[in-house]
Every structure is written in structure tokens, then in C-alpha cells.
Prior knowledge:
mainly alpha; 70% helix; globular
Amino acid sequence: MQIYLPIAEVSVNAFLLLGLGGMVGVMSGMFGVGGGFILTPLLFFIGIPPAVAVATQANQIVASSFSGVLAHFQRRTVDLKMGTVLLVGGLLGSAIGVRIFTWMKALGQVELFVTLCYVVLLGTVGTLMFFESLNAIRRAREPLAKPRPRKHHSWVHGLPFKMRFRQSQLYISAIPVLLIGATVGVLAAVMGVGGGFIMIPAMIYILGMPTKVVIGTSLFQIIFVTGFTTLLHALETQTVDAILALLLIIGGVIGAQIGTRLGMRLRAEQLRILLAILVLVVCAKLAYDLIATPRELYSLGSATS
Length: 305
């Protein structure tokens, strides 16, 4: 069933969009990620303009993150103070990101810019995740492997403007917290991703937050940053397609339930290496499209009489 997307100005099969949303929802349930860094390139592949794909994808992240954070509030695993500081940085970062996005759109280079960002980010994240997963599998096979001692202090603890985060049991500078939030805000605006795949490791390894409060706090910040990003895109770039967002959300909600059940049957290391392979495959496809000769060669020019 073909459906016309008024903002994207293309006709796409509605069941294909539901299927893409469902597939990413399955990934979200299996791997614990929002899936925006996979769904947005997939939208490129089916003909959705990159500007519309980036701006619209944030809607699905808001919906999935909201449902997730409610469960974490019930378990009291959300550090509201930490989330608020991250949110301040995230809002500033998203405002900067939308300005960059608008500038690249005015130059007519937004498609190239977004695709290059995805190639670099997916290539880096996928490679690191792949080798980390291989090392985790290797360590799991070693008998009686001694755990490495955990460092209790790092360079973060020497920075000024310290704040106490009771829920996370931390007394650290607000500077790295703001920088992490701002980075995620820029990514949300420029690439249409929630940024959890970057924020969560940063919160654990840089800030030293307990794992039990990391995911809930990350989701709390992502809701507001992606919502604010969607609003800015709707006002400044007019690239949010409500029909596309609705179909993706419906598919994602259904797929997440399936993915949660599938994820319980696989080990964490196996899940991470499967996700890493998928990320690298998408990265390779994007990189190939950048250098391959297009099927239809054309040029635009003014006719001379």
C-alpha cells in the first residue's frame, strides 16, 4: 500500500515503513539502544531525503524513551539532578546542531554532510564494539580470570565547579557532565540519534556512575533533548514528516516487545557482536554509496536560446 509523505515528497509503501520501524524496535528490545543510528540510514536507502529522515527519526526516540523511563522511575533508578545537568548541555548542543544543520541545508550539502557523519561515527563505534565484544567472549572462556582493579579517581575529579549527585553517589565537576550532554545534543540534531550508545559508556567510564542508574538517567535526558530537537527542526527547517513518524512509532512499539523476548535468549557478548556487525554493514553501504557511480547521471543547467 503506497502512501504519500507530504514533507518528504515521496511515495513509500506503508508496510515497508512499519517493517523498518518494527525491525529497529526489535533491535531496541534486544540490544538496549534507541536504534536511530541504524534507522536513519535505512530511511536514506528507501528514498527518504536525509533532512527529513534526521528530523523525523527523533520522534520515535521520544516515544520509546518515554515508555522506558517510566519503568526506571518506578525502580528509582533515575538521577534527576544528573539528568538535569546533562539536559542543560543537551539543549545547548541541540540548538548548535540545528544551526549547523540549517547552514548545511542552505549550502545544499546536507545529504553529503549527514552521510559522512554517519560513515565516521558508525565505522568508529562498530569497530570498537566489535573488538570489545571479541575480548569479552575471550575473557569469558578463560578459567578463573582475575577482575581488573577499578580506578576510583580520574582526571574528572580534579576539575572545578563540583556538584554532589546523591542518587549516583558522586561528587564531581559539572563540566564533563555538560560536555557529554552537549555532544549528545549535537548528534541528535545533526544525525537524528538519541546518542545513548555514546552517552551510556561515557557516563560509566568517564563520570563513574553506577550502572543501575545510567540507563534511566540517559533516557530522561534523551526525551527532552530529542523533543526539543524535533521542535527546532519543525520551526527552522520544516523537515518533520508526521505521517512518517507515526508509522515508524507504531512499528517500533510492536517490534520492541518482540526484541525484548529475543534478547533474553542470547548472551550479552553475542548481542553486542551481532550489533557491531550490523553497524559495520550499514557503514559499508553508506561509504559505498558515496564513492559509487550513480545509476542515473544528470546535470542541471539553464537552457540557452
